[in-house]
Amino acid sequence: MQTFLPFADFAASAAVLDDRRLGKQRVETLQILRALHLEGYGWRRHPAVTMWHGHTPALVAYGIAMVDAWVARGYADTTRALIAEFVHPDDPPDQQLLARQDRLPPWLGDEAVHRSHRSALLRKEPASYRPHFGDDPDDLDYHWPEPPAPPALPGDRVAWVVRAPLEAGRLAVPVAPGELPWTPLDARSGRITKRLRQAARLVDEIAEGDGVVVPDGDELDLAVVRGPHRVEDHRHVRPVRRVGRLARAALDFPAALQDPQVVFALHDEPAVAAALAAAGPDGATTSSPASGVG
C-alpha cells in the first residue's frame, strides 16, 4: 500500500507514473480513505495510512489528480465519485486551493519522502523511471513521515446502518455458519470473526427504539426498531417500523456508507438524527419538511 509521490506536486507525480501504477493509485487512494474513516476497514496502522491523518482533503486531491491523469490517457474510471465523496461529491478541492489554505500535510515537500519514492519506482521499473529521475539511487528504503495528527475519533452514534431488505416490517440478515444457537460474544470461546461481530450488533447491541438506516441506491430508508431479535427462515430478524426516506446526498459525510459491513454505527449525521427525532421514540411518523419524513 502506497501513495506514490516522487514529487511534491500531485499532478507532476501522476504524469510520470507508468500506466499500471497510475491506475493502482486510484484504488489505493480509495482504500486509504476508507481505512482512515470506516470502522473496522483494516490497514489503519499502516504508515501509508497514518501519514495522511488529519489531511483527508489533501488525499482526495491526490486521488483526483491520479484519476484525471488516468482518464487523460484514455482509460475508463469508476473511482472518482467514490474518492470525492470523502470531502465534497461535486466540488473536491485541488492541491493549489489547499496550499493557499495551508491545509497540505507538513511532510509534503520533504525531499527524504519524495526521494525514497523515486528510489522505489526505480527498483520496480528502471526502464520507465530512469529517464525521469536521473542519478537518483534505487536502493533507498521508504521514508515514512510521522502522522501529522492523531486518528479521528467517531462522534455520537445517531443510527445503525443495516444492509438488508426492509420488507414486511422487518430487517432480515442471513445467518452465517456457526452463529446458531445464538450465544453472546462474551460467552463464546474461539475466534470472534468480523461477521460474527456484525451479527452481534443486530442481535444484541441494537435496542428497541434505535434508529436504522437502510441504503437503497441514492436514497436511504429510515426505520425504528420495534422489537427483540428472533430467528426466522435461517435469518436474524428485527421488527422495524419504516418512518421515511432521505437522499444519500443529505448526509454530511455520505462516504460513511461505503463501509462494506452488514451492520455498523452511523455517527454525527444531523439530517438522520432530525428525521428520526421527528418520528418519535415509538416510530410514529410526524411530518417534517426538514427531515423528509412523511
UniProtKB/TrEMBL annotation:
Q: Which organism is it from?
A: Egicoccus halophilus
A Pfam family found in this protein is Pyr_excise
Name this protein carries in UniProt: Uncharacterized protein
Source superkingdom? Bacteria
InterPro entries per record: Pyr-dimer_DNA_glycosylase
